[in-house]
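residues and backbone:
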Amino acid sequence: MNAIVIREPGGPEVLELQDRPTPEPASGEVRVRVLRSGLNRADLSQRRGRYPAPPDWPQDIPGLEFSGVINELGAGVHHWRPGDRVMGIVGGGGYAEFLTTHASTLVPVPDGLDDDGAGAVPEVFMTAYDALFRQLGLSAGETVLIHAVGSGVGTAAVQLGARAGARTVGTARTPGKLDRARELGLEVAIPGDDHWPAAVREATGGRGVDVILDLVGAAYLAGNLEAMAPGARQVVVGVPSGSRSEVDLRVLMGKRASIRGTVLRARPLAEKALLADEFARRVLPGFEDGSLKPVVDRVFPAAEVAAAQAYMESNENFGKILLAWG
């Protein structure tokens, strides 16, 4: 099979297409013929040598999500069939024509989603759903602040928050991204400049927000504390601005607030299976009734992966960047 391999740590030029053995599914696994591979910022960190894959996943083939068609079943798999359209998240190996993964972590592709749409769902919608609802318990009537609202996870979070009856507030440094996020259900759009904490307080009548989905990291931590309402909850999902910052614990204590972090990649199989099952039951119906929509920015041929990652590094995209196989 063809696979995209990290030849050595470095820039996009270290990615190359190589011929690799087609993997065989073990007991409980399936093999998937990949049609779309989704790009994520974690892939950029892995390419630079800063974010290795968990054990038992390919170490030099990046890629955390896919959509495709089941090609072969391993022993003991009975609830899937060859030819089923599926999507999901993996610990690595997503940038390849074929991959193997445990059957319990697969999610069916809803009717009405084409290959591009399916490719734009797994990582961003599962991450946003897990962070907002399973980690922070976002509920109707609450106000959620979403940083980097034009990112893949950001565009998913806006839709999920609006669908749940929450008030959505989002930041982005590009005005055009804020305009497009409004079309997805963003109620309050705030430029991601030095004044965003004050703008959030003004938009909430001085109270602040109940939930913060932080896709930026260290640079926004102090502002997040300012923007929190009493009892607010924050989850850190991404740290492109850095992972270290000072926290005024007195402010955190005074607001009775909490901050937590989350990742999906290194979670145990059982946790990933639970998430996949809950996601299929609670989120997939939104794609079927039209209340949720995948957001695709650009689709690159797999052979143009270097250009695709360079484009992601430019921060120009709104929504998902995908690689197409075949």
About this structure: The mean pLDDT is 96. The chain is about 30% helix and 25% strand. The longest helix spans residues 122-135. The CA atoms of residues 40 and 121 lie 12 Å apart.
